[in-house]
Design a protein that fits this description.
Length: about 170
Amino acid sequence: MDPKPERSSSVATDETPLETLLQRPAALPERVDGILVGHVDKITPDGSPCVAIEAFGLAGVLAASLTPIAEEHIGKKVALGFEAGNPRRPIILGLMFEPAQWEAASSDPASLNVTHEDGRCVVSAEDELELRCGEALIRLRADGRIYLRGQYITSHADVGQRIRGGSVQIN
C-alpha cells in the first residue's frame, strides 16, 4: 500500500487558488459604462461582424457597427460601446490603429484629422490637403488657395452659378 498525499479535487495542478481564479472567465456585469477593447472575431454570412470581448471571456458576439467591417478586419482590435450598457449588445465604434498602421497612412498622423458628424465626413489638414486621381488634382491650402487641375473641368448648376472674386480672368 502506497501512502499518497491526498489532493483537493478543486485544484488539479500546482496552481495557487489565486491563479485558478484569474484564469476563469470573468462574470458578465449587469451594466457596462465606458469603452472596452475587443477584436473582430468573424463575419457572419450576411456580413454582420462578431466580436470577442476578452474582458468578459466572450467570443462570437454579434455586434452592431458604426463603421464598415469586412473579412480583412478579422483579428483587428476595435473600440466597443454597449447599447444601453448591455454587455451582450456591443457596438463597434471604430477600428483601433497600431502605430505601424499610422505610419503607413500618414507620415505625421497629427496633421490629418477625419471626423464623422451629422452625415458628413470632414477631412482636415494643418497646411495642405491634396486629392489625386490619375491626372486630376484638387489642392486646398491653409492660406485659402484652391488649385484645380485636370484635362476637362465641368461645372454644373441647376439654378444659378456665380463666379465672384476680386478679379476674374478667363483665358
